[in-house]
Amino acid sequence: MKKIALVGAAGNVGRKIVEIINERDSFPDVSITPIGSMRSQGEKIHIKGHDLAVVHIDTIDFSHYDLAIFAAGSKAAQDYVPKATQAGCPVVDCSSFYRMDPKVPLVVPPVNLKDVERYTEKKIISSANCIASPITTVLAPLHQIAPIDRVVLSTYQSVSGAGKDAMNELMHQTKAFYTTMPYQRKVFPKDIAFNVLPMIDVVHPNGNTGEETKIALEIKKVLDRNISIAVQSVRVPVFISHCVSVFVEFSGAITPDQAKDALRLSPHVTVIDDMKNYYSALDAAGEDQVFVSRLRYDPSVENGLIFWTASDNLRRGAALDAVEIAEHLLTKYL
């Protein structure tokens, strides 16, 4: 039986990975060790019918594992992924740390799962950002009809993308608003409850944030480096699901009906035809699909479309991608 080390098992994405593995009959029969920091050490995680205690990462010998899944952020990836790979353990990493490394494949399973075969270069596979993943999933079928020249994204990202502490901050601020209870901001620079924050991550000298830069670069790496991309990222007071307003300019003609027909062929996308209806963040929460609605012509350019996407950032945008990559790696290469 293969052995998997799941690093960050008690975090938002780690728990979703466990949830998905517990749901999937197709996932190989494996032994999973939940791993974390001192903060989560000893916490019980229910995996395949067993309650397993989280083990401190510093006690782990990765040479005893066939695969490691890292869902613990960039700092943990920087510190511990090299220890895993040097011990001969391949890694699926959910953080941004290795995504732009030219020797590390950046994989969005509905788009370029075949790139998993390149894991041997550094024994690392990166999964994409929780916006880049659903957006490339939708753009890839359209890119095959008419090459994409330019994409403009306005993202509306839930607080779960910033971790459990961010979700707690939204909850406490919301309660405080109605009860006049005191609270202290720890995660966001301004109140997130009943507010929107038009800045995610640090600001670079060119004015773009780290999040906006990551989204653009990752879409280009996965889909096509020649596409021009502009991104405005906004944090919204929603617990789960990211939504995106998408403007796409193509090099040739494409109709909304052609786009809808192409997207319907994807098992990972659900399209709504009724122009008076749409998918919201709540509609997408807990689902594995990327939901597309309000798809129509963009009247400001010759060959353009506008649409709205909604997807669960913890499942489709993170955990499910990692599980599908691990599943493919285990069944085909390990």
UniProtKB/TrEMBL annotation:
It holds the Pfam family Semialdhyde_dh. The active site is at residues 130, 242. One of its GO terms (molecular function) is NAD binding. It is an enzyme of class 1 (oxidoreductase). Transmembrane segments: none annotated. GO terms for biological process: diaminopimelate biosynthetic process; isoleucine biosynthetic process; lysine biosynthetic process via diaminopimelate; methionine biosynthetic process; threonine biosynthetic process. InterPro entries: Asp_semialdehyde_DH_beta, NAD(P)-bd_dom_sf, Semialdehyde_DH_NAD-bd, Semialdhyde_DH_dimer_dom. Keywords: Amino-acid biosynthesis, Diaminopimelate biosynthesis, Lysine biosynthesis, Methionine biosynthesis, NADP, Oxidoreductase, Threonine biosynthesis. Its EC number is 1.2.1.11. Gene3D superfamilies: Dihydrodipicolinate Reductase, domain 2, NAD(P)-binding Rossmann-like Domain. It catalyses: L-aspartate 4-semialdehyde + phosphate + NADP(+) = 4-phospho-L-aspartate + NADPH + H(+). Residues 3-119 form the Semialdehyde dehydrogenase NAD-binding domain. Homodimer. Belongs to the aspartate-semialdehyde dehydrogenase family. NCBIfam families: asd_B, PRK14874.1. This is Aspartate-semialdehyde dehydrogenase. It comes from Candidatus Bodocaedibacter vickermanii.
